[in-house]
Design goal:
The complex is a heterodimer of chains A (266) and B (262). Chain A is of the alpha/beta class. Chain A has eight helices and ten strands. Chain B has one domain. The chains are: A alpha/beta (266), B mainly alpha (262).
Chain lengths: 266, 262
């Protein structure tokens, strides 16, 4: 099994989370292994982004624990959390670029604030990352002057600028057309090959995104229904997973006789 | 009946929660302020925003405040035949009270609202989360330069306000209404003591801190405030709240400091 390789870098154990009276996560268990790409899928509002925010330490669980590099995020000091986050790169759903700064300054910010690199070194590094994203000429522009796809690419450049060990992608292709999302996937392939990071992706873009993943986890009813390789995921017996696979991909692996029942009746 | 108490309790808890949050926020920002690393450039930029860009409005309001003080003071003092005290009346009320308070209210309107809206929008569009995930402390990166800039700018703006106000008072009192220039300056010279200047200085420092504290905290905790608005509406409501709250606190603290120092 592919998911047995590598050390566990992120582990969620029995994570519970309430928002007011709403029980969003009901004992989530999930492991992310080093060097792999883990995909978290699920219907809207099931708590995919909430899981991601737990991994980032932006939200603390009401029960259970979240461990990153073997450290419980809820118990460590602010300083240790900061240390762990230096290994992170995050591509936010809406890119979350600093809109009062130019593209260049956005990408350079982590270098300026977190390293003591000289202006020249920063320039080289930033230009290299921008070139990787085909954005060499956009450095002087402001985020509001860019298209959605370009903003995502700037976000990716910013996430990768410090060569992180783990990169989180929150809906990297939502709101982009087929060409633009293919471009993001191509960049993802290229950068992961080059920088060898562990990736955690939250996405709706099934089934295309299955090609990227080493492991796929479905969240439904507040728990992870299963985390397995894409191939096994598509053939799983778990009714929830089957349901998800069938509604999002069509019954590609099942026999013809089942199909009629899936057509919507008006 | 029980409902009333329930509501009262809920309000009370909400208030305590908010007050505690803001207190912790202030403490942490002050801690960041005194601990290294220190960066000069962002502070200079904030001084430019909070300080130098407020100079024009301070000049304007300062001049008119001094002028109207001289006008009112002249007709009041003339009833007692003591127009000679006009200089002292204008200078003392400006240095002790009106300078710090009116300058603070102007800075609230100009910079406080802008700071609150800016940080609120950054919170709304996940920019603050992004900073945290990049292991950049938002308090250190965003708030500290504003705190330092406010504490440096506020006294300077207040002194500009005082000086321009006194000149305005001189123009009205001496040039227009014909008070003797010598008596005007002499009464000012003999009545204004160092304690008065000190009071103005302490007030302006406290006001500077209050303004930037309330504006940044209201913006930073936008997502936790239950003001009934989300998104753009949340930003606008919180900005209004910040302006009202900081104006009220400036007036309350003005009274407290005056009663303590007089």
């Amino acid at each position: 099994m592919s998911e047995e390789q590598g050390n566990v870098v992120i582990e969620l154990a029995d994570v519970d989370k309430y928002f007011g009276r709403q029980h969003v996560l009901k004992g989530v268990n999930l492991q992310v292994r080093e060097g792999t790409t883990t995909l978290i899928v699920g219907a809207s509002g099931q708590g995919k982004s909430v899981i991601l925010k737990h991994m980032l330490g932006l939200i603390k669980p009401d029960g259970g624990k979240v461990e990153v590099f073997g450290k419980d995020l809820a118990r460590i000091s602010k300083k240790e959390l900061k240390e762990i986050r230096t290994q992170f790169g995050v591509l936010f759903q809406n890119a979350a670029l600093f809109d009062s700064m130019t593209v260049y300054d956005n990408v350079a910010l982590p270098l300026r604030e977190r390293t003591a690199a000289s202006a020249e070194k920063i320039r080289d590094n930033v230009m290299e990352k921008l070139a990787m994203m085909d954005l060499e000429n956009a450095g002087e522009k402001y985020p509001a002057q860019l298209s959605g796809g370009m903003q995502k690419r700037v976000g990716l450049a910013r996430a990768l600028v410090l060569s992180p060990k783990i990169v989180f992608f929150d809906e990297p292709t939502t709101g982009l057309d087929v060409h633009k999302s293919n471009e993001i996937y191509r960049l993802f392939y290229r950068t992961q090959e080059k920088l060898k990071y562990t990736a955690v992706i939250v996405s709706h873009d099934v089934p295309k995104i299955f090609k990227l993943a080493d492991a796929v986890a479905l969240i439904a009813d507040g728990v992870i229904q299963g985390c397995m390789s894409p191939e096994r995921f598509q053939l799983s017996d778990n009714p929830r997973i089957r349901d998800f696979v069938e509604t999002t991909m069509g019954p590609i692996y099942s026999s013809e006789k089942e199909e009629s029942s899936l057509y919507e009746t008006v | 009946m029980l409902k009333v108490f329930e509501k009262l309790g809920e309000r009370g808890l909400l208030f305590l929660e908010q007050a505690g949050r803001m207190g912790v926020f202030l403490g942490y920002c002050l801690f960041c302020l005194i601990s290294p690393p220190y960066k000069l450039r962002p502070v200079v930029r904030q001084i430019q925003f909070i300080g130098s860009r407020s100079v024009f409005v301070i000049l304007f309001t300062g001049a008119f405040t001094g002028m109207v003080l001289a006008l009112q003071g002249y007709y009041t003092l003339r009833k007692f035949g003591s127009e000679g005290l006009l200089g002292s009346a204008v200078a003392l009320s400006l240095i002790r009270e009106l300078g710090p308070v009116v300058a603070a209210l102007m800075v609230i309107g100009r910079a406080g609202s802008a700071i609150c809206a800016e940080i609120g929008i950054m919170r709304n569009s996940e920019q603050i989360d992004a900073l945290e995930c990049m292991a950049i402390d938002p308090c250190r990166y965003l708030m500290v330069p504003k705190f330092i800039a406010a504490v440096i700018s506020m006294p300077l703006l207040t002194f500009i306000f005082d000086v321009v106000g006194i000149i305005g008072g001189y123009l009205i009192g001496v040039v227009l209404l014909g008070v003797n220039a010598g008596t005007f300056w002499q009464s000012m010279y003999s009545s204004v003591a160092w304690q008065d200047v000190q009071m103005g200085l302490i007030k302006s420092l406290v006001f500077g801190l209050l303004i930037v504290w309330i504006a940044t905290a209201k913006g930073f905790y936008l997502h936790l405030e239950r003001t009934g608005g989300f998104g753009a509406e949340g930003v606008s409501r919180n900005t209004t709240n910040a302006v009202v709250l900081s104006s009220v606190s400036v007036l309350i603290w003005d009274y407290l400091i005056t009663s303590w120092m007089l």
